[in-house]
């Protein structure tokens, strides 16, 4: 292969013309082997528990991936990321050979490198959209941890930038890669349960209140100002950020300053699967009503503790979304299917063993990491592109806005606005950061 036709050159050319380019295995080396110069080079932005335990191991074990950079504003986590990468190579679990991995505290410095093809972003939610947009505009393909946005407008911006730049985008979410969701989608989309009448999606009821927290000294390894980013500036306290020198569940996941809680966190797993199965992943509901319980006003953690939301779609589909346990249920006039992360049930039971017909619509069945890397190589659309991620996350955001407003709302899924409701529309471009005044 000549210098003018390197894999990176092909990727840049394909992105410039926004046209799919197939790169055969022989272009990557004899017998499909991938020489170091032809690998997909990756940077990891955010080195917390998700990246340390999942993203780094799973990405570097994917054939043809070379990790060359990491970034975090916590220097302890940053320092741990490189040995984790090296461990994967030394153990033989990663494909290829360990090479130098550079460390950055400012993600813009990582994005400025022209030898990085793609980035995996797994930071607190309030950083997701901004970093992903910056990455795509810097010429990087993006795997973005869910939930990918905090506002509907951020989702629209992500979709627009992905289209304008021709970058590959994938929601880094594993639920569609599991057998239960794949099986449920195959059955429902091919009519095996008949016409869909009702959907139920449910997430765990695991968020809890927390007493008021004192201001604490900022740990020496943390750049707290940079961690906060565009969020309101507040004093540091451990339960508002993440545990010091530890990878247990971070407190920011229960703070409205930085996220919406389970309604978009696990919701972007279960609602994701149900929207995929019912072919509603590029639209939205037309009516929304919901109720929920926030912690007491003095609680430091303040995301919803539990909720019940009812959606209606334009075709009459009824959808219930609530806190209970993680599952999706899709009922048709000829049967139903219920799926979780590792389990699936159906009625009639014969649905569990039905063999799809050759004429049935089929769906990719591969890990989210492999799907992303394959699409980076051939410039095809991922299983969860920006438009899908935007619509899936928006479902949770719309539910939260309805609960927060305390009234039924009408939604225009084409123009993506609430109908005749300026108060609700104000939350389309600003996140909910406080419980309602009368809640």
TrEMBL record:
Span of the signal peptide: 1-18
The protein, known as: Alpha-N-acetylgalactosaminidase
Pfam families to which the protein is assigned, alphabetical: GFO_IDH_MocA, GFO_IDH_MocA_C2
EC number: 3.2.1.49
InterPro entries tied to this protein: Gfo/Idh/MocA-like_OxRdtase_N (IPR000683), Gfo/Idh/MocA_oxidrdct_glycsds (IPR050463), Gfo/Idh/MocA_OxRdtase_bact_C (IPR043906), NAD(P)-bd_dom_sf (IPR036291), TAT_signal (IPR006311)
PANTHER family: BCDNA.GH03377, OXIDOREDUCTASE FAMILY PROTEIN
One GO MF term attached to the UniProt entry: nucleotide binding
Domain spans labelled Gfo/Idh/MocA-like oxidoreductase bacterial type C-terminal: 215-432
Keywords, in A-Z order: Glycosidase, Hydrolase, Signal
Lineage: Bacteria, Pseudomonadati, Planctomycetota, Planctomycetia, Planctomycetales
Gene: nagA_3
Residue span, Gfo/Idh/MocA-like oxidoreductase N-terminal domain: 42-172
